[in-house]
Design a protein that fits this description.
The chain contains 25 helices and 34 strands. 28% of the residues lie in helices and 19% in strands. A hairpin with a 4-residue loop joins strand 17 and strand 18 (449-453). The relative contact order is 0.12. Bound molecules: ligand MGD (2 copies), iron/sulfur cluster and molybdenum atom (MO).
């Protein structure tokens, strides 16, 4: 075993420390870093499975131009030439960079320097526009800077933690575990505000299933309640402006607007008002709205008015999604910012940065925000585009339109680790990036803690880091100041720039890290310069011109009413075990078991009205596009407000791309799209047949609906069609590359067909077809891949081998049937006892909310059994 390398998880913004080592066979071993302050040794299942996602099969290993492998020189010269020519002919705003909150700070710094300081355009935006922009805008309106006031330990020191628009249990699992541990130790009250009953509700004292989009009203009502009950802080108020106007505006919100029962509403208002140590955590249920910035400020108003901010155990807390969402904000990744929290539109700030960079021309007005940027691409105003570390053809709203715009753009380069993502397929030039474990740099987590990502694997093929690619193109465009030897030198330059920024009054000061030993840099929270204070604003000093915090008057409004043509409002978001477009988590079979295909969670009343039964397929249509999704009937969602996850792509389920349905409707202040309220129509998909297949080798079905997922021996595929093939045997053969089935079992009268394909007596594939959703033990069939094929067509294990059912605990691979059996037949009564008996939930803990629900008899209804 090699010595463990200390690095940081590449997924969510909790920013857990990871120890990575390799054994003699080259296998990677992953463990939580017990010394990292964010996680103290814990990991969630995605982090724990990192070692299973590092295979290089199918990786992009060399630059490609027009699909052909070329040298780095050729690819980089081409990008430099096309960017330079386009700028010469059409000006700096005719080119753009679209980057990612998953880039490392050093990558981000170089991209930003190139675009804003040397190309002289601010057309560099990032997927953080889809993620954190409303929080950024809300922070800047209230505080004068984009600063998260608190620390994770505030969640542990609070007496009340309110989680609003956050599915913390699935999206920030280790932070959720820290919160639950604090609750167990000191009785923290937890309130979840989410129209959907999520896994996060399992650990909560109160779940407020408010009307979707009503958060602004709710926090306005809270502000009025605080005022009316004398809870405004007399000590803090002189440090604020706008309190009267904010209360006056809040008076227009009414209790009915929230959709909550008076009792629940009162309980919440009294709890919040009566608890000094309160933390309000918020995430995409707030940000991803066309009034997202106002909702952020409605929350901040309550914390400001009561002075419950920046002190131990209290404050508003915007949890960041991506591993470096925060770092990207610090380094000025958004179109309207400069590095180190300096502002693009402030001439003094611009001059300071330009002086430091010795740059020829500085952008002096904000560039185009993501949605507008891709519309400019569509209209041909942007003629050369470079996309790094993000997959906009899947994750942007109006995704079909975005994909068409990318395809039609004169010149597109993409940096990725895979050649065949939905976005990479559309690019003229592909640049192979080094991935997690192969590269070095820093990330900043939700609590402003900067941690190192460190390489422990060699770069495969010709892959090179993103920062290097950007710096090379900059040099080839003739720019000075891009000749760093490594990320440590970039970080050093950035730390020195932050001293310049501090002189301009910026709070982002990491000048104390200039000249630091980069290789051994321990996790450190900023500011780390002249000041090292851990929390902000508790002292009543803000970064506004007059130094006072600003309360903002909020006229809350609900999302536009549903229309007759599109009567449903589609909520979208994440599932526990997948990361965005699944280009990494999708590789680990155990992460694909929990929820294996795209689905539509629909209230029983809606399902009944639409004639949709569980496990059938629904066709969902919006003015922007169309999707086909598996129906999951559940009262966790409200009538009229179904939910669908965002993870499936053209590679994994072409009709499951949820952003094809989402409109490009944005918050007017932040430019963040409203990704959680698409107006859609739903109808049954007229399936004539349903199918399920397992296959050792990859395959691409030719039918209306399919969804692929990895299993240990290959892949599993759900299928369906609206027309029947003439000859099922021929169709099955075509699916498996032309080989004839070794075994077939057909009952044409019932429309049931089963085929098995073998090689040397071992199962290489199987297809089950039926006129209704296929009922069989999927796990069992997948397990037979590569084994004896004798009873493959039976579809279920023999009586001697119980079927564990769909995976609930992905760490220890414990299935639903096993758990239900333990509950019903072995008398197990608690989550702890399930852990002792089966191991379920005893490792990362992410499935504990689901175990608790099962124990309460609220079994989940799977999309497919
Ligand atoms: N497993 C997993 N974890 C992740 C990620 C992942 O892909 N997979 N991605 C990471 C990233 S980049 C991000 S940004 C975070 C996102 O983390 P979260 O924001 O927690 O996740 P989401 O599922 O997008 O949305 C959160 C909740 O908002 C609710 N919601 C929808 N509309 C409203 C509303 O009007 N009001 C309120 N109060 N709630 C509403 C939804 O029902 C949903 O449960 O997760 C990070 N962590
Ligand atoms: N409907 C709906 N849409 C949403 C959301 C939602 O809640 N609902 N959430 C939005 C949010 S919050 C976010 S953050 C976005 C996320 O959306 P994206 O950022 O578009 O999704 P990812 O799958 O994370 O894309 C990362 C890409 O980088 C590649 N990659 C991996 N490692 C490296 C590397 O080291 N270098 C390079 N160059 N590439 C690499 C991956 O293969 C992948 O193609 O989605 C947004 N879209
Ligand atoms: S909570 Fe999970 S995904 Fe997030 S950083 Fe920690 S291990 Fe990674
Ligand atoms: Mo995000």
């Amino acid at each position: 075993m090699t010595a463990a390398v200390r690095t940081t998880c590449p997924y969510c913004g909790v920013g857990c420390g990871v120890l990575a080592s390799r054994d003699a066979a080259g296998r990677v071993h992953i463990a939580g870093d017990p010394d990292h302050p964010a996680n103290r040794g814990r990991l969630c299942v995605k982090g724990a499975a990192l070692g299973e996602t590092l295979g290089n099969d199918g990786r992009l290993l060399a630059p490609r131009v027009g699909g052909r492998e070329v040298s780095w020189d050729r690819a980089l010269d081409l990008i430099a030439a096309r960017f330079s020519e386009t700028i010469a002919a059409h000006g700096p705003d005719s080119v753009a960079l679209y980057v990612s909150g998953q880039l490392l700070t050093e990558d981000y710094y170089v991209a930003n320097k190139l675009m804003k300081g040397f190309i002289g355009s601010a057309n560099i935006d990032t997927n953080s526009r889809l993620c954190m922009a409303s929080s950024v805008a809300g922070h800047r309106r209230a505080f004068g800077s984009d600063t998260v006031p608190g620390q994770y330990e505030d969640l542990e020191e609070a007496d009340l933690v309110v989680l609003v628009g956050s599915n913390l249990a699935w999206c920030h699992p280790v932070l959720h575990q820290r919160l639950l541990a604090a609750k167990a130790a000191r009785g923290t009250k937890i309130v979840v505000i989410d129209p959907r009953r999520t896994a996060t509700c399992e650990g909560a004292d109160l779940h407020l299933a408010l009307a979707p989009g009503a958060d602004g009203h709710l926090f306005n009502l809270l502000l009025c309640h605080l005022f009316d009950h004398g809870r405004f802080s007399a000590e803090f108020l002189p440090r604020l402006t706008g309190a009267d106007a904010a209360v006056a505006a809040a008076r227009t919100s009414r209790a009915e607007d929230t959709g909550l029962s008076p009792a629940d509403l009162d309980r919440f208002l009294e709890l919040w008002a009566g608890t000094q140590k309160v933390v309000t955590v918020y995430s995409q249920g707030i940000n991803q709205s066309d009034t997202g910035t106002d909702k952020v400020n409605a929350i901040l108003n309550c914390h400001l008015a009561t002075g419950r901010i920046g002190r131990p155990g209290m404050g508003p807390f915007s949890v960041t999604g991506q591993p470096n969402a925060m770092g990207g904000r610090e380094v000025g990744g958004l179109v309207n910012m400069l590095a180190c929290h300096l502002e693009l539109e402030n001439p003094g700030h611009r001059a300071a940065v330009q002086g430091f960079w010795a740059s020829p021309r500085m952008a002096d007005r904000p560039g185009l925000k993501a949605v507008d940027m891709f519309r400019a691409v569509e209209e041909g105003r942007i003629k050369a585009l470079w996309i790094l570390h993000t997959n906009p053809a899947v994750t942007m709203p109006e995704a079909d339109r975005v994909a068409r715009a990318i395809a039609a753009c004169d010149f597109v380069a993409a940096s990725d680790i895979w050649p065949d993502t939905d976005t990479a397929r559309l690019a003229h030039v592909l640049l192979p990036a080094t991935g997690w474990g192969e590269k070095d740099g820093t990330v900043t987590n939700s609590e402003r803690m900067i941690s190192r990502q460190r390489a422990f694997l060699p770069a495969p093929g010709l892959a090179r880091p993103d920062w290097w690619q950007l710096a090379q193109v900059a040099q080839r465009m003739g720019f000075q100041g891009f000749d760093w030897a490594g990320p440590g030198e970039i970080f050093d330059e950035y730390a020195r720039l932050s001293a310049v920024a501090a002189e301009q009054g910026s709070d982002f000061d990491i000048s104390g890290l200039a000249g630091a030993e980069y290789d051994t840099l321990p996790p450190v929270t900023w500011p780390h310069g002249r000041s090292t204070r851990r929390r902000f604003f508790g002292d009543g000093r803000f970064h506004t011109p007059d130094g006072r915090g600003r309360m903002i008057p909020i006229s809350a409004r609900l999302p536009a009413h549903a229309t007759e043509a599109h009567p449903f409002r589609l909520n979208t978001g994440r599932i526990r075990d997948q990361w965005h477009t699944m280009t990494r988590t999708g590789l680990a079979p155990r992460l694909s078991q929990h929820l294996a295909e795209p689905y539509l969670e629909l209230h029983p009343k809606d399902a009944q009205r639409l004639g949709l039964a569980s496990a059938t397929l629904a066709e969902v249509e919006s003015p922007q596009g169309r999707a086909i999704l598996r129906v999951l009937v559940s009262d966790r969602v409200a009538p009229g407000h179904p939910f669908a996850p965002m993870h499936w792509t053209g590679q994994t389920a072409p009709t499951g791309r949820i952003d094809a349905l989402v409109p490009g409707l944005c918050d007017p202040v932040s430019g963040q799209p409203a990704s959680k309220s698409a107006a859609v129509a739903i109808r049954p998909f007229p399936a004539r047949w349903y199918g399920f297949a397992v296959a050792r080798e990859d395959l691409t079905p030719d039918c209306d609906y399919w969804a692929k997922g990895r299993v240990a021996g290959g892949l599993q595929v759900e299928l369906a069609g609206s027309s029947l093939p003439e000859d099922w045997s021929a169709w099955a053969s075509a699916l498996f590359g032309g080989t004839a089935p070794a075994m077939a079992l057909s009952d044409p009268a019932r429309g049931v067909h089963r085929f098995a394909f073998t090689e040397g007596g071992q199962l290489t594939g199987a297809l089950f077809v039926s006129p209704d959703p296929v009922r069989l033990s999927r796990g069992h069939l997948a397990d037979l891949l590569g084994r004896g094929a004798a009873d493959a067509l039976a579809g279920r294990p023999g009586a001697d081998r119980p079927d564990p059912g769909p995976t609930v605990c992905a760490c220890l691979n414990v299935g639903l049937n096993t758990i239900l059996d333990a509950i019903h037949n072995r008398g197990i009564l608690s989550v702890e006892a399930l852990g002792t008996a089966l191991g379920a939930g005893a490792n990362c803990g992410s499935c504990r909310p689901e175990l608790a629900a099962l124990l309460q008899g609220q079994g989940r209804r799977e999309a497919a059994e």
